[in-house]
């Protein structure tokens, strides 16, 4: 099992968020440790995206506390989240098709040497980064347009790693990918965990969740509907928690089993 | 050109989906672009680029050579030193404005006002220096700043208020043309001082033969040294670099072209000042676009506005600045046009002039879809347009036919652009 540190990198305590009359999140709890992949699942409208956006600083929370490495913090703008070390990779990739891989990795934070772009240094660091993540792409000097969907996704994730974040949030990273490309992305997620990053993975795909996640946090109608250890939970249990078909006894039983594992 | 290693990822963790994971860690990706050693490698790379629709400047250069061959066979006067020198000077005005258009096209936008703005600059200079007797240098600077201001206004309305650039600059086209007619007044034509600064822009030649050869030498040596030292740094940093033989071949090619042009200029009156200024502008703008983070931002906006915004780029500021740059180069080009005819008149910057400018940028290889192109494209494109104009004029063919031929060339170019774009998409290893 993956080593899990005592203090979570990020902890949400009783977080609530309202949009006008809509209660999007109610008393949500979530903990993510370093070196841990937490899958965030739930049906459409369950509040996954809202929750991620509160962490990323797009929507400030109304009630509750966000703890970062054990200390309460205010995240009111995207910049706050970035400064803490939270990187978010959104579903629609933020890459420029016409610029090469190196240019995209360093877009907005180019390395300069006497005021001029230092292409050599950027290329060296790009190769270093892609090598450490074992990402293979045809060349770091070809435009993004000629990469496959999976390769683009791994480049987008690699780009988020440049700021050395402690927590990486991946919003449906495998949504539009084929079998092999999905495997590439999942490999990368595992490598992030090995390197000690905390990862929050939003996914609709149970196979992906079972493959890489350590814990699954289920949201239903803006509330927690159970946190499961992936190894000891069947896919059916997770799905019933998502759809709300859970008999209360089953949830309790799942909670009990979890408790036993922790002991 | 990749030297990626096949590191096998750690296998100690449990993978629930072994088949998929195994597929992901197969050995070297067979699609890696590794250039083979020697000449064969270059040939293969060239073929691959052709297939991928990555043609670069090749179609224009080939087209230009064909045009020259046709006109030379029709009229032996076409490629004489005198005609070549004349064409070189005539293309600077259009070319300067096309440089500004390249910036705008890189954003994926269009600026229809550059023709009118160029006319305003010529008229402003003429009115200030001739009518009001202002110091020529001051009048020159004010005329150029007029263009900058006009461009910045277009950019502001486009970027801040969100009016499509097409509409803003169409309004600008009408407004600035009216403005030019207004300041030119009743007469309509103001002749410039034939010994004045602006007329000198296109009438001055460095008659000393050493000037042209010196410039060719500086260009060749400068290119070799920057490539060579850049390569040394790449080697030191352990990233792929070009073999020295390739640098030598490229430098030799540049030297042949540079010295051939220098010989032709020296056979006539010498190296024209206008050409020197135009080349300097091309070198500087190319450097800004490809070697500074400002240029990177311009390309990024042409690729994806949303991605640029998320990367922290100030989208509005870049857009306004690009339109200001287009206005500035329109004004500079307008001064060269006024210089060539030694007057500012009511016809400046009107009619087919605007279309020629945009055609020059597009024919040179700048994409209408944004994000692809270089300012050197303006040089290639304007050479095509001026060659056609001069060639047909030598043959005594009237302007209706000229328009039709230029239109045909432009159509062919945009077709190449659109097809290239499609091929590039399908060639993307999806």
From TrEMBL, chain A:
This is Sugar ABC transporter ATP-binding protein. The keyword Nucleotide-binding applies. PANTHER family: CARBOHYDRATE TRANSPORT ATP-BINDING PROTEIN MG119-RELATED, SUGAR ABC TRANSPORTER ATP-BINDING PROTEIN. One of its GO terms (molecular function) is ATP binding. Keywords: ATP-binding, Nucleotide-binding. It comes from Streptomyces composti. It comes from the Bacteria. Residues 10-246 form the ABC transporter domain. SMART domains: AAA.
UniProtKB/TrEMBL annotation, chain B:
Its main location: membrane. It is found in: Cell membrane. Keywords: Cell inner membrane, Cell membrane, Membrane, Sugar transport, Transmembrane, Transmembrane helix, Transport. InterPro entries: ABC_transp_permease. The chain crosses the membrane at residues 55-75, 87-107, 114-131, 137-158, 165-184, 204-226, 247-265, 271-289, 317-341, 353-371, 378-397, 403-420. It comes from the Bacteria. It is a multi-pass membrane protein. Pfam families: BPD_transp_2. Part of the binding-protein-dependent transport system for D-xylose. Probably responsible for the translocation of the substrate across the membrane. This is Xylose transport system permease protein XylH.
